[in-house]
Amino acid sequence: NAGVMQNPRHLVRRRGQEARLRCSPMKGHSHVYWYRQLPEEGLKFMVYLQKENIIDESGMPKERFSAEFPKEGPSILRIQQVVRGDSAAYFCASSPRDRGIDYGYTFGSGTRLTVV
Amino acid sequence: SQKIEQNSEALNIQEGKTATLTCNYTNYSPAYLQWYRQDPGRGPVFLLLIRENEKEKRKERLKVTFDTTLKQSLFHITASQPADSATYLCALDLDTGRRALTFGSGTRLQVQP
User: End-to-end alpha-carbon separation of chain A, Å?
Assistant: First the structure.
């Protein structure tokens, strides 16, 4: 298992376009978390999902952002009508237990979104 | 409000010395605390977890302490090496309403050869 896989690594979108970020968790991990990191800032929680369920989306902006983790396939973070302020690194993490208890989170290498 | 504080200034030390990083939190009593390492352009890597009933935990050259009275964790790297240069993040299950870890902004460590 290659760990948490995120793609693409880099994504450039023009203002108003849609950005779609993908995350495949580690094998055996059923908990997926998305975080956003702005330059020189910390990781900000966005959403926590399990298969076919959004468990906690309290960190997700109310508009333009959505996330899903279907029964089959990767988790998707979708940003509609992107704006320059959406430019950031988006990290996905997975864990075998809720909140990384005992095992911590395993992070992917991130998707760097640039909005031009 | 609940928050996590890590020293935003970079820590510069000489190779071979012990690096000590601090994580302070307020207004909550987490059941456990985690430390991660992040290199530029990469995702964080989990290092250690310490529970509230554990005063100290070690892993190779790493040592973490957890003082729930002071609401503080200290992260030590002994016999530091240039390869230890990175940003170190602490993370807590900080908010009972949020089912995810909250991360500090991290402290950058630079080990000089």
Answer: 35
